[in-house]
Amino acid sequence: MLLALPMVLSSYLVTVFVLIFFYAYLGQAWNIVGGYAGQLSAGHAAFVGVGAYAAAVLSLSAGLTPWVGMFVGGTVAAVLGGFIGFLGFRFGLRGFYFVLLTVAFAEMCRIVANNLEWIGGAVGLYITFTGNPWQFQFQDSRAYYYIALGLMVAATAVAAAIERRRFGVYLSAIREDEGAAEAVGVPTFRYKMFAMIVSSFLTGVGGTFYAFYLFSLQPNTVFGIPLSVEIIIRPIVGGAGTLFGPIVGSFILSPLAELTRFYFAAGGGWAGVHLIVYGVLLVVVVLFFPQGAVPWLRRLLRTQA
Amino acid sequence: MAEGLRAEQVRLPAPQGLILDPVLVVQAVVSGLLFGGVYSLMAIGLTLIFGVMRVVNFAHGDLMVWAMYLAWLGATRFGVDPYVGFVGAAAILFVAGFAIQRQLVDRIVDAPHEMQILLMLGVALVLENTALVAFGPEPQRVRTPLTQAALWLGPVFVDVGRLVTFAVAIALTLALSLFLYRSDIGRQMRAVADNGYGAQVIGTDVRRISALAFAVGAACVGAAGALVAPLLPFQPPTGLQLSVTSFNIVIIGGMGSLLGAFMGGLLVSVAESLGAVFLNPSMKELVSFALLVVILLVRPAGLFGRRAI
Q1: What one-character-per-residue DSSP string does chain A give?
Q2: pLDDT given at position A225
Q3: A-chain residues near B255 (CB < 8 A)
Q4: Does B108 touch chain A (CB under 8 A)?
Q5: Number of CB atoms found within 10 A of residue B103's CB
Q6: Residue B29 contacts A, CB cutoff 8 Å
Q7: CB–CB of A110/A220 below 8 Å?
Q8: SS3 per residue for A102-118
Q9: CA B156 to CA B13: how far, in whole Å?
Q10: Is B49 at the interface with chain A, CB within 8 A?
Q11: Could you give phi then psi for residue A126, rounded to 5 degrees?
Q12: Cα–Cα–Cα angle for A90, A38, A19, nearest 5°?
């Protein structure tokens, strides 16, 4: 059904669906480490940014096609993720060290990118539109629709594969009670690292899509905390650590974000409103629906049946 | 955050490569140290909240920015000098902190850590963006006669505003440690921080102490914000930067350690001040991040942390 949808949608609605799929993809990537493993990363924008910059710089300066560059970007992001994980997970440091580190590293990347002139400094990078598919550019916006859909499906397949294997069971054990998991012989450090590396790799690949969909990259947007919040909030609202949580969350929130941006940002001076809405939403979800929408929907369906 | 700028204003020679001009180094250390009192006060607030409740206050920097705006409102609307107005800012934030603890954090004290962090992240988003809607994105600065004055100690320039800020911040830190080590409520706070369950068993009202600890922590950051308002141009996103700086300081000093937060604040401020002189001023935060990474590699419990947490 989703495959045929672009045939009947207006181009604006196609854009909305691209955003839904893309943020569901990023949310699913986050979900692997933040949901299943319960290691809250509040700085996932760092991986989007690193992946985006790697692919864009390689494309602009060396002419490397983003189709290859996205894997380079993903790899660079995975290395960064591995380093953050190594610092944060060592010596049985408690979870909040990891949270603070992810935020600190995202900020650090932002400052570095703002100061490196050869990657555009504070002005950022601009990609000229050529419409060449080899350069990840398409005349028809429906191409982005299918790519974003493909990304979302691929990340969900990865999450499903993890969920069904020993890997996923270990991650849930770590989330529920790390001490107990360790005691029964789960190599917690190694599995947290795996989760972090897979998650940051996928997020870095998403960065390439981000860069070549928007044609521009600015350090303050691509590494900024608002993007990290966009990534976190969808799986949290949908249900962190569930397979369909990020997707449900994105179907709820992406159109909502688009609407608030449309109504408030257009008026000028109301730029912060949609983030206030997000903040209130986070507080409400944490206080009243800490498990998110998916477990709630599942219970609802069960009582109906 | 304007250390680099200030060094230029006093006509100090620009660094040529890596030649270390001793005057320049001393100048950077002095202005960093004087600025550090505020960092210490801010980090003590964070570490107090963390120590008693094991809650990472993600909204810490945003509370501080609100205190800066309160000082700014006081100065521009009512003509209250921020060096007097900080008392009011601290009082208002005391109430706000008490309310945040009672209304929000208290409901999920038993929930996993991530939930509390998400909750505070939500509060931070609301605070930052309400400031954005209310005051706009333009950087503000509070003017007071003191920031125009300067002293010269030999070749070293001492900004009087900075000196007063430092003195008040240190006085408040001392008062706070007296409170924590000598008063009954302070002792109870330390007891809850040490062992919440044990404190409850011997009859401490943990909920009340937690709310008071959050309130005192918020008042610290409120005073710090109002005191730094004349020195540091601020805008709503400054809150996040200050939160991240406070996280760095408490990890470097040792999570939950008051002495660590105090020394860490001075250390990070001096490091940033040196970084602003010898690197690009906008890259000064990188120095404290580098310090953070080194500390986590070498001594993850922090400089003054008693044990690895």
Answers
A1: -TTTGGGTS-HHHHHHHHHHHHHHHHHHHHIIIIIIS----S-THHHHHHHHHHHHHHHHHH---HHHHHHHHHHHHHHHHHHHHHHHHGGG--HHHHHHHHHHHHHHHHHHHHH-GGGTTTT-EE------GGGT--SSHHHHHHHHHHHHHHHHHHHHHHHHSHHHHHHHHHHH-HHHHHHTT--HHHHHHHHHHHHHHHHHHHHHHHHHHHSEE-HHHHSSHHHHHHHHHHHHHH-TTSSSHHHHHHHHHHHHHHHHIIIIITTSS-TTHHHHHHHHHHHHHHHH-TT-HHHHHHHHHHHH-
A2: 84
A3: 96-97
A4: yes
A5: 12
A6: no
A7: yes
A8: HHHHHHHHHHHHHHCHH
A9: 13
A10: no
A11: -120, 135
A12: 120
Delimit the domains of chain A by residue range.
Answer: 5-235
Q: Is the ipTM of this complex over 0.90?
A: no
Q: Which helix (H) or strand (E) holds B85?
A: helix B82-103
Beta partners for residue A126, in sequence order? A216
Contacts (Cβ under 8 Å, ≥6 apart) of B160: B146, B147, B149, B150, B151
- Residue B262 within any structural domain of the chain: no
Residue B103 domain boundaries:
38-237
The percentage of residues in chain A with a pLDDT greater than 70, rounded to a whole number, is: 94
State yes or no: pLDDT of B235 exceeds 50.
Answer: yes
Amino acid residing at A52: A
**Is B28 part of a structural domain of the chain?**
no
Task: Show residues of chain A in contact with B293, CB under 8 Å.
Answer: 87
The residue behind tokens 């219970």 is A299
Residue of A nearest to B286 (CA): A108
Is the pTM of the predicted complex or chain greater than 0.90? Answer: no
- Which of A95, A100, A269 has the CB atom closest to B114's CB atom? A95
- B267 lies in some domain: no
Do A287 and B296 lie within an 8 Å CB cutoff? no
Cβ-defined contact of A279 to B297 (cutoff 8 Å): no
Residue of A nearest to B132 (CA): A272
A91 to B122: CB separation less than 8 angstroms, yes or no = no
Position B111 pLDDT exceeds 60: yes
A94 chain-B contacts, CB cut-off 8 A: 113, 309
Q: Alpha-carbon torsion B240, B241, B245, B246, what sign?
A: negative
C-alpha distance from residue B2 to each of A33, B5, B106 (Å): 38, 5, 38
* Contact in structure between A81 and A109 (CB atoms under 8 Å): no
pLDDT digits (tens, 9 = 90+) for B258-309: 888 999 999 999 999 888 887 777 777 788 888 888 888 888 788 887 643 3
